[in-house]
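Tutorial, part two.
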Amino acid sequence: MTTLLLCLALAVQSDGAADAATYEDERLAAVLAAEGLTPFAPSDPDRVAFVRIVGHDVFTPDDPWPDWLNLAHVQTARDVIERELLFVVGAPFVRLDESARNLRALFISSLVRITPVRIVPGPIRLP
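Running the prediction step on this input gives:
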């Protein structure tokens, strides 16, 4: 089965520190479901097959704030995120946590998750 890596650099608003883990998990679950992926724990022979970067607006439809406030925010360019990743396609799953810390240290995202994933077996999803 193909090994994948999902890199989330999300710019989203959280209601508070106590809710951050739950909110993060909800956002990650929504992205994984939409992409047809499932998280897994990589082992030694596993290699990164590709990197998928998913960004979100600061204010999402489930936030109490109006979506038009997103007009005042821009999403971080993909190349800015890519240059902070300390791994490449074909490499073993190493330095994932350090890459996430690098992205958080830039203070350009309020939520960053780097999660190894696999494709969920089933029918092919067309865009």
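The chain has a mean pLDDT of 74. In part three we will examine how such features are distributed along the chain.
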